[in-house]
Amino acid sequence: MPYRLDASSLQTLFENLKARGYDLLGPQRKDQAIVYDTLESVEDLPQGWTDEQEAGHYKLKRRDDDAYFGYVVGPRSWKRVFLPPRKRLWTATQKDGQLSLEEEPLPSQPIALIGVRSCEIHAIAIQDRVLLEGPHPDPYYAAMRAQSFIVAVNCTQSAATCFCTSMDTGPGATFGFDLAMTEIMEPEHIFVLEAGSPKGRELLADMDLENATDLQQAHAKAGIEQARQQIKRELPQDGLKDLLYQSFEHTHWDDIASRCLSCANCTMVCPTCFCTEMEDVTDLTGDHAERWQRWDSCFHESFTHVHGGSVRQSTRSRYRQWLTHKLASWLDQFGTTGCVGCGRCITWCPAGIDLTAEVKAFRDSERK
Amino acid sequence: MGPIEQPRPMTPRPFRIETVKQETSNVFTWTLRAQKEGDTLAFQPGQFTMLYLFGVGEVPISISGDAEASGDLIHTIRAAGTVTQAMQQKQAGDLVGVRGPFGNAWPIEEAEGCDVVLAVGGLGLAPMRPTLYHILRHRERYKRVYLLYGARTPSDILYPEELRAWSDSGKIDVRITVDVGMDGWTGEVGLVTDLIRDIQLDPYHCVSMICGPEIMMHFTARALFHRRIAPQHIHVSMERSMRCATGWCGHCQLGPKFICKDGPVFDYPTIQAWLHKRER
Lengths: 368, 280
Fold this sequence. Notes:
The structure holds two protein chains of two kinds. Chain A is 33% helix and 25% strand. Chain A is an alpha+beta fold. Chain A has two domains: 3-88 and 100-230, no CATH class; 240-367, no CATH class. In chain A, the strands form four sheets. Chain A has an eight-stranded mixed β-sheet with strand order 3-2-8-9-10-11-1-12, sandwiched between helices. Chain A has a four-stranded antiparallel β-sheet with strand order 7-6-14-13, with no helix packed on it. In chain A, strand 13 and strand 14 (288-295) form a beta hairpin. In chain A, 47% of the residues are buried. Chain B folds into two domains: 13-102, Translation factors (Elongation Factor Tu (Ef-tu), domain 3, Beta Barrel); 115-231, Nucleotide-binding domain of ferredoxin-NADP reductase (FNR) module (Rossmann fold, 3-Layer(aba) Sandwich), CATH 3.40.50.80. Helices cover 21% and strands 30% of the residues of chain B. Chain B has helices at 82-88, 125-137, 160-168, 192-196, 214-226, 259-262, 268-275; strands at residues 13-24, 27-34, 48-53, 57-62, 73-78, 95-102, 115-121, 145-151, 173-178, 188-189, 206-211, 234-237, 253-254, 257-258, 265-267. A seven-stranded mixed β-sheet of chain B has the order 10-9-8-7-11-12-15, sandwiched between helices. Chain B has a six-stranded antiparallel β-sheet with strand order 4-3-6-1-2-5. In chain B, helix 3 links the parallel strand 8 and strand 9 (173-178).
């Protein structure tokens, strides 16, 4: 049963989460973008702001209302919570003929993610498969996931770069959340709220909220429908895996490579890209060493380095690896595509490369 | 998901170098013993570990010892990059870190009751040695067993005493060829593929395992096809950049496969399409 939460009472929800021991993470305006970071109160939310996105273009703009979640997605994704850009795995000491290793403590602070989009829930579910369901589950990732509380916010508007409808990942959240909210502005500014887990139901019970009326629920539904209608881009999945596998030697890769800077932005902003590098560092005494795990990218030449050089030396081969992995081999590896249609790689590509257009180019050339 | 592995899969365990044996000018074999008592490392032929040299880095190295002998861990290493060159400077008594074992195994059970063709090139003999030990321990389970070994020069031949002993025992038909003969070499000169022509086998009951440079594995598999060995009975061991060995880091992907967790051993039909692709 959906409930109603007055926009003016949003802070009550935050207080309830804090009282349960959660640190809050959520959207805020920083460096001219909306990013996810530590949230103290509703004051931190990007109220009244929205984002304008296109290939290679991102701009914050004032809204003509006071919506808290009136933007789409920014350059940061939630993956940094579970798979941080840099984290220490262990510290080693070698002294007096002894080598000892101390593992970094696993995180113990529960966190609540505020404002998770449906495509991002899918991205988290995809990373769960990658990092938890293999032969060696990632202990840090597992600990953070077990302690996380997810507050989804359904999309009521889309960016020009969105294509979740092609990927079947949005715009409304259908699973993987503890709470899901839809923000509606008319006839009054409220959230229509529902629980998706025992933790969520327990919290809602404690908040003692009124049920949402049929009309309020209808407005929420209409908002999500509006987001769906606004989506212009598409990435048809039909036969996509075979198309990419068969296009291995296609000349269109050269065309993309002539534009791609191999800068790795797409992989950094992608909510599912999981590749990391293991980096060993030592101090000047030579007695201490540390291993850090940090984000890496298949766009770096060093990524495939073996004795004798790198396997993928050209931008062509590296873009091909990224796109083919994301949309084709990911399916063979994890039973799901690696793309959720959030459009970040399109927005944050400095050359404005749009994977939906590139896939279309492969499709069109095949029809000829 | 189950409980977290202990120690965590990314944490090396300290091992001490018991012996160092210089095999050739740039290849050496370490015998390693766990620092913590009882901390032995059970493995299957074909698996590898991640060897950590304090303050230098970590590399994947296949295990080249006997899986059924208790105790020490044996690795044959070629000084090729920064880490392995630094490893060559280490001596008995020094400490290293070990993670693993990782990866899958050679199909030693599938090969039971069959002729077995082990074809190796260069350092590829090292990851194959556990299979040879296994076959020697259970020789009655296998029919004809060939070890076809291609080395660059006679002085690059690994484990020469063992090769002679295996051959002399009559248990393994050892055939060696070199790219370049010298030092009074009276044996074969040529490629491993040349050795395949002359062996006798039952093509319908034969399993082959190949380890060496990709180009060598490609042509060896082709030569085996000519002898009517079915592709699914041909297995190769692959190599790619490997940073975690746990399936997290993404570096070792070859097409849809992760070498670290889906391999390193693949049957030929699985890897064929990707083995021939030039990624450059």
